[in-house]
Amino acid sequence: MKWRVFILGTLLKTTLEKITGLDQEAMNLARERLDGLLKPPGSLGKLEEIAVRLAGIYGQPRPPLASKAIVMMAADNGVYQEGFNGYSQEITKAVAELAGAGLIGVAVLARHAGARLVVVDVGIKDEVEGQHIIKKKIRYGTDNITCGPAMSRSEAEQAIEVGIDVTNKLIHEGINIIGTGEVGICNTTTSAAVLAVLSGADPELVVGKGTGADEKAYQAKLQAVKNALVVNRPDPTDPIDVVAKVGGLDIAALTGCYLAAAANKKPVVIDGFIAGTAALVAAKINPLVKEYMIPSHCSAEKGAQVVLQALNMEPMLYMNMRLGEGTGAALAFNLIDAAVKIINEMGSFADLA
């Protein structure tokens, strides 16, 4: 593979330099243990695959139960100006603020999974209130991608470094598995634009109805993505250029979460369509990052299957969910805990002797 050379910010550059592959010896030992447990080899399917993957990530044949956090990146998108979205853009701010009271969907599911919910303002168009919100605003929302770039390349890199910084600090505090999430009106539009470029798929295959648009609004949304690609001509060989031109600050920041998790040898759970698109961006920046990713569910959003195909990943769950926020990642935490308990607590045939 021919690598392109980019001029990167210091934090981004040093993070990329730290990313290496998984511990194969730990994975082999984990497989041996799983094959010796009181069951036919491979009979617990994806639970066994998860346990082996975790062994390779942590470098331990018996991976630990994780201290969990979901990082929800919040940002607004200028393409809202096109008028096809029926929801007020104020919802982005409202959801971020209500997270502190534990009232939004991901807050409930994170609480159920025993996970900490971390809300980051990386680009909400207004000021937000709440001590629970980490304020890392790069700018007050992006520009309208149908008229020009969403943001500058420098701003995209700054947003990626926000994700790296937040993730590094969580890991330093003892978190050892990260779930990804987001909130931002029109971010299915920006994700579809990014995905179309990075996957080579036609916009018709990746633009969905998002928050529930009718056919007229859907066609306007589809046309907005097509216009954005023509106006901006993002470079498919340069994922940061793609995010800067037609993406969003939430996508960029989540990209940083994936990169930082890999650099710190910690697993990172992909949520739905938007978080999956960010995962693809991260994998395009450094393919080794994929080894640290665990997919949760297949979102009902139209482009979700394309994302998973581009990542060559199979989801754990098919729940017809499309809320985002990190809800799928929260559900997946329960299955990841189950996989860890299987490899650590289940008896073996040797115990029968």
TrEMBL record:
User: Can you name this protein?
Assistant: Nicotinate-nucleotide--dimethylbenzimidazole phosphoribosyltransferase
UniProt pathway: Nucleoside biosynthesis; alpha-ribazole biosynthesis; alpha-ribazole from 5,6-dimethylbenzimidazole: step 1/2
Q: Which HAMAP family match?
A: CobT
Supply the PANTHER family for this chain. NICOTINATE-NUCLEOTIDE--DIMETHYLBENZIMIDAZOLE PHOSPHORIBOSYLTRANSFERASE
The function of this protein is: Catalyzes the synthesis of alpha-ribazole-5'-phosphate from nicotinate mononucleotide (NAMN) and 5,6-dimethylbenzimidazole (DMB).
Q: Which Pfam families does the entry link to?
A: DBI_PRT
Q: Does the keyword Secreted apply?
A: no
| Residues annotated as catalytic | E325
Quote the catalytic activity from the record. 5,6-dimethylbenzimidazole + nicotinate beta-D-ribonucleotide = alpha-ribazole 5'-phosphate + nicotinate + H(+)
Per UniProt, what is the name of the gene that codes for the protein in this document? Answer: cobT
- Family the entry assigns: Belongs to the CobT family.
Q: Which controlled-vocabulary keywords does the entry list?
A: Cobalamin biosynthesis, Glycosyltransferase, Transferase
Question: Any idea which GO molecular function terms this record carries?
Answer: nicotinate-nucleotide-dimethylbenzimidazole phosphoribosyltransferase activity
Q: Which domain of life is it from?
A: Bacteria
